[in-house]
Design goal:
The structure is a single chain. This protein is an alpha/beta fold. It has twelve helices and ten strands. A hairpin with a 6-residue loop joins β1 and β2. The longest helix is centred in the middle third of the chain and has 15 residues, at 140-154.
Length: 326
């Protein structure tokens, strides 16, 4: 595995040559990837010593999960699955080379899920990945069929994490997921929500005691999950995955003309995106962040948040005050 310094040097050079800095034009989509405006993207210091990416233990088993992952399916949908194929292959390599493992392959379009599976195989990333998929349909048989299709598209006989997407027909699908966990088709099971309005329903799902993971939207500009879901998940031994950590780029609005704070160097952050990701990771209840990007330079920037110190309470408060503004 390449060291972080080797990884950084490689992509700094490629970016300078303009080989990976360009991003395909995104087509209209129901999903937003986490965009990093060019003025906020600076590669980390190549002289940074090589250290392992931070990990956190999955409560149910103690398995260590690196804190930075990827939402590959949503990124491919936003960029256009075929258009995004080549850069996504590089994104996967960047993630794994930096020590990341978690990849959520869910996509509303089956081509994106299929291409993720093909890329995992062709890049040699598949064996290292902690791979997640989702079921989003109603009815027991339809759910079973959809999950089996996902395994075929991803080239897997089993999955690390199967999730009920947006709690769709949760009472039915969770029964199948529990059975899949028992017979070994899924090592872990979970549920996702993408809207704040669904957080109360997710709380009830957590209280059911059947979930190993939940996935919630959480960022410094969308903090609703912090109030109840994160502590409830911790109380019930449920791991937390975070989607949309940069809120589709909205987190940068309040800092567009600001320099990095004086304390950024002390927490080994060279970009605002790393600071915002570390703000999330400074919440101990969070186990892994899943930004959606099909840009290798963005991925190289994101993984930098998985190294070095996290923000302390005063730094977290200061960042909230900057974002919330007067």
């Amino acid at each position: 595995m390449r060291s972080r310094s080797e990884l950084t040097r490689r992509y700094w050079t490629l970016g300078t040559l303009g080989l990976v800095a360009c991003r395909p034009r995104a087509r209209p989509s129901d999903y937003e990837v986490d965009e990093i405006p060019p003025q906020f993207l600076n590669m980390p210091d190549p002289a940074h010593p090589a250290t392992p990416m931070r990990t956190r233990p999955i409560p149910r088993t103690g398995e260590l999960l690196p804190v930075i992952g990827l939402s590959s399916g949503l990124a491919l949908v936003s960029s256009g699955a075929e258009v995004g194929r080549v850069p996504m292959g590089e994104v996967l390599r960047v993630l794994i080379a930096a020590g990341g493992r978690a990849i959520d392959a869910f996509a509303a379009e089956e081509d994106a899920e299929r291409i993720t599976g093909e890329l995992l195989k062709s890049t040699g990333v598949g064996s290292a990945a902690f791979l997640a998929a989702r079921v989003q349909t109603r009815g027991k048989q339809a759910g079973q069929v959809q999950m089996e299709q996902s395994l075929r598209r991803l080239g897997r006989r089993n999955i690390d994490l199967m999730q009920v997407h947006d709690l769709t027909d949760f009472a039915t699908q969770i029964q199948t997921l529990v059975r899949w966990r028992v017979i070994g088709h899924a090592r872990y099971i979970g549920a996702t929500v993408s809207r704040v309005e669904d957080l109360p329903a997710l709380e009830q799902a957590i209280k059911s005691g059947r979930l190993d993971f939940v996935q919630v939207p959480f960022s410094i500009v969308a903090r609703a999950a912090h109030e109840r879901v994160l502590p409830l998940a911790a109380d019930h031994g449920v791991a937390v995955l975070v989607s949309r950590p940069l809120a589709g780029g909205r987190v940068f609005d309040a800092v567009r003309h600001r320099p990095l704070p004086d304390w950024a160097r002390g927490v080994e952050c060279s970009t605002w995106s790393q600071i915002f990701l570390k703000w999330i990771l400074s919440h101990d209840e969070v186990h892994c962040i899943l930004p959606a990007t099909s840009n290798p330079r963005h991925m190289a920037d994101n993984v930098g948040a998985g190294f070095g110190p996290l923000l302390d309470s005063s730094q977290r408060r200061a960042l909230v005050e900057i974002v919330d503004g007067p």
